[in-house]
Amino acid sequence: MKRITRFPWWKTAAAASVITTLAVACGSSGTGSGPSATTDHSASSPAQPQQASTAVCQDNAALQASLANLADVSKGKGALKQAKTALKDAKPEFTALTGDAHGTFSIQINALKSALTTLQTAVKGVSSGSSSVAEVRTALGGVTKAATNLGAVLAQGGCLGSA
């Protein structure tokens, strides 16, 4: 009689976990079908988190405070002026963060830059009539998401209170 050797259940589970991790880590080139074709990689980070310098952490704290002013923009009269002012106030902090980061966290910083540019365009567009308030709200959501993603990766890099 032939004896059948079985792998212990934990070895099978470990192998499945490794395969799943590799599939997620490798991602997708953006082609094909299935859920990985639409994966958002804007907040992905390397296996070993990059370390954030003290200057980057301070710059991020200042930037997050400026971006909080965007969330405080009222829906009434003068809201566009408030949004323009908040964007203008965030620019020096963003510039400092970008310079002090020296290319680290570039995926998240570029995503935030893109989101801020989209918001600025939408705000200007409402003034000229080429954008709607709904587009501004959508763009503001993009800024919030990008800022949150940047804060999360900086928290992994050692910035306290960034997540």
Summarize this structure as a short list of keywords or feature phrases:
single chain; 163 residues; mainly alpha; de novo design (two linked rop proteins); 5 helices
CATH class category label of the domain at 54-156: Mainly Alpha
What class do helices, strands and sheet pairing give? mainly alpha
In CATH, the architecture of the domain at 54-156 is: Up-down Bundle
Overall helicity: 55-70%
Please describe the biggest sheet, giving its number of strands, its sense, and whether it closes into a barrel. Answer: none
Range of strand content: under 5%
CATH topology of the domain at 54-156, which one? Answer: de novo design (two linked rop proteins)
Radius of gyration: 21 Å
SSE sequence, one letter per element: HHHHH
Count of alpha and pi helical runs:
5
For this entry, what is the oligomeric state of its chains?
single chain
Total beta-strand segments: 0
